[in-house]
Sequence to fold (1034 residues):
Amino acid sequence: MEKINKMTKGTVAGIIANLVFVEVDGPVHQNEICYIDLEGTKLMAEVIKINGSQAYVQVFESTRGLKVNHTVEFTGHMLEVTLGPGILSKNYDGLQNDLDKMDGVFLKRGEHTNPLEDDKKWEFKPLAKAGDILEAGGWLGEVKENWMPHKIMVPFKFEGKYTVKSVTEAGEYTIHDTMAVVTDEKGKDITLNMIQKWPVKLAIKAYKEKPRPFKLLETGVRVIDTLNPIAEGGTGFIPGPFGTGKTVLQHALSKQADADMIIVAACGERANEVVEIFTEFPELDDPRTGRKLMERTTIIANTSNMPVAAREASVYTAMTLAEYYRAMGLKILLLADSTSRWAQALREMSNRMEELPGQDAFPMDLPAIISNFYSRAGFTYLNNGESGSITFIGTVSPAGGNLKEPVTESTKKAARCFYALSQQRADSKRYPAIDALESYSKYAEYPELQDYFRKNIDPDWPEKIALARDILIRSREVSEQINILGDDGVPVEYHNRFWKGEVIDFIICQQDAFDKVDCSASLDRQKYMLNRVLDIYHTEFSFESFDEVGTYFKRVINTMRQMNYAVYETDEYHEREKELNLIIEERKVA
Amino acid sequence: METKAFQKIYTKITQITKATCSLKATGIGYEEMAIVHGRLAQVVKIMGEDVTLQIFSGTEGIPTNAEVVFLGRPPVVKVGDELSGRFFDAYGDPIDGRPAIEGEERQIGGPSVNPVRRKQPSEFIPTGIAGIDLNNALVTGQKIPFFADPDQPYNEVMANVALRADADKIILGGMGLTNDDYLYYKNVFENAGALDRIISFVNTTENPPVERILVPDMALTAAEYFAVDKKQKVLVLLTDMTLYADALSIVSNRMDQIPSKDSMPGSLYSDLAKIYEKAVQFPDGGSITIIAVTTLSGGDITHAIPDNTGYITEGQLFLRKDTDIGKVVVDPFRSLSRLKQLVIGTKTRADHPQVMNAAIRLYADAANAKTKQENGFDLTDYDERTLNFAKDYSTKLLAIDVNVEVDQMLETSWDLFGEHFSKVEVGIKQEFVDKHWPNENEVK
Ligand SMILES: Nc1ncnc2c1ncn2[C@@H]1O[C@H](COP(=O)(O)OP(=O)(O)OP(=O)(O)O)[C@@H](O)[C@H]1O
Ligand SMILES: [Mg+2]
Fold:
């Protein structure tokens, strides 16, 4: 959007909750940001509709006390985030205000805080040299941000090619210092510091290509990695009724996933859940680097009691930060809890504008908005040949737990992994309550990914996953029959089949998110365990009567669970393994 | 409510609907309060000079030449130590026959606590009820509702919980309380000699329903005064939030808003969240804990009100009549306190989590045995024992009339394990079994 020379002004003409009608004296842009002056307090708002000389704006804060004729100043730009070193480890609100810089216990309207640090010095190292030709997103140099190489880039807004005229030498600098001078195609010199801005509703496209995802993103959660794997740069979503474990699962992913950076967008959910991250992440170790988890995490907190309009902004803010770091060649995991709250915010506004409602009163274009958002994730090759990725996993909170509702259905079309949480599993404490059979990963069928599995895990991995799923399906079928016909109304073999499925359920699908060891399983370990349960499946056991079957497999399961609770390949682990071998021998048909 | 000299009086109403009236006025602030024909009202829409007011007690009988006075401020509540022991209506006016209080005026429905200024809740609230303390421990700063059918004794349970909880202040927000229930609360609080710790804002079924909308904000603004200014532990009781939500739907319906599921307003989630999220633990010791009641119709939790509530609160407590023992119990399967892991086993005895899980698992086995029995299948010896265990467990622990300390609840659980099961069947970590498994001769 090009800058407007004379800033447009306006006056308030009408107010309905956070929808405000503004009479304007000049040009305005759709989605332009303006500030309403409420007797000295500046309320931030966004233009969402224009009708003649009236702009409809949604105010990101409470409009209490606002009056007709209060003045409005337009900024000439859309909602933007400020990009530069210092974003890591921050706690932002949905509009990128640094929450830690705000005064007092309560949030104050109109208080806007600096997302970055003006005075902090960063250790800079040049990467480009005079004469290099770069495009938007090209790397000029890097600073160390919590041990991560943070690239200083040619701003994303720049179009065309730029010749590097000079890059500042290595040393310590603030974000406002000049880091480079570049010359545009017309020969004009432009001085660059470490800061740039970007409008959150637009995707950052400073990359060469976006191939289909072809690598696994390890999460440490067995039912995901083994049975429904998500690819690096992939998309997934977790729908589930309240209390089935969406947030616990997302927190587990944020702690364990193999990513360089985690961005957590708490979108319209509980404040105490964000406090849990604030409290625990500075103490917890990142299993891969040994550093504290908070060092690789950024939180966007727009909890349910914070202004509704900023909820929508919060997910875009989070996505834009992820795109910024992806352009540095990093592997980002973006989590949003819950995207339904964002959709509800859209619904509230659309109703206030008296738009024609779609299903359940959601706006008609909800599916388009959701799929547009999910499409911003992905694996990318950058212009310099490096790669970076954003893997995105959102939760969905379906009304009444019914998956036939607009947000779930729209998301299903956009996301490639579906992790359905089942009320029944949650009720019987089979956590994580992901229904392994209802759930799916489209990536598991990608030939690229299958090759990756064969090469990196096991030559028969895809077949093994298929077999495991098959065993679960058959186990479920016989369990229904046993329920109808009674324990002794079916052949003993049925019980055998049922319990072999239960072994997979208990040992692969279930995992204790609150246990220090079991919470995360390495790929190696997952491979060992899958092979182990499949061995058991292939083993023929002899039983006289049905009650022997249950008793026996409970022992098998119990021992294997102890293995899951033991640190991999320690004495204790091998001890349990031996115990398991003995139990197997007891009833194995030679 | 006195009017002040400088206030301009309007006498020309241009439009009247069931819930609102409109007039031409200037210089009016959004959400400003007004008095229309002696009734309290609030600005809900401004379009140029046209101002629309929502009249809390309804528009019946309002003439077009009614007197309209704007108060120049949003809704407020007076706060101060004198609130203690007093009963107010939804507007904060006394209903106990005593004079109005002098306190400081605070706007209700104020801003949210900055999440980074919160502390993670960590203080256990014992209630004496095992269905709560043993299986669903409550923590200060938590928000949790009772999900109950209208015929269940939720007001009694809540009054008990409130009086036993170690709170500096108890603030009752009553919405659509029957007069009998109101008098019940008044009575128990008086008899417990606890009146000086208690403050009530009450809308009864005799008052207009829309007035209820003010009650939670009144109660919670008072709560914030005590929790923030006085660093006190405040317990807020909100009953019945279903009637609160019904009032919201009346308003949105009268204002011709597009309803979403179950004819509730599309903003129901945000409206409820704004209330429940006032629950907070502050680092300096002050806290607000919210225990609410959401009545269900026919146990249906997929209805928009309990559904949205479940997505907001930190768990829920289900009351259910156990027909086997003829008592109301806290259902161990459907109840959940999501903050319990912050206190059980650390603030309570180390064996607490394992004992809790083992008992619930055995109780679940009993439920399966019962289904088997009902379907006409034979029961095994184990099935029989689980059924006997379940009866004892319900009577001695789950029933809401139980009132004991947590340690005693754990002891009772161990006794029941010893009486009905072998150590292997109970499956608790060896170190706890060694320590707590009852001696053979102690068990009857
Ligand atoms: N993996 C798990 N292991 C053990 N307990 C779990 C697990 N997942 C969930 N739980 C239990 O379920 C409770 C609810 O989980 P969680 O908060 O993640 O639900 P949710 O789906 O996010 O609910 P909501 O939609 O209301 O936010 C937790 O407090 C915990 O007691
Ligand atoms: Mg959640």
Q: What stands out?
A: Residues 26 and 48 of chain B are 8 Å apart (CA to CA).
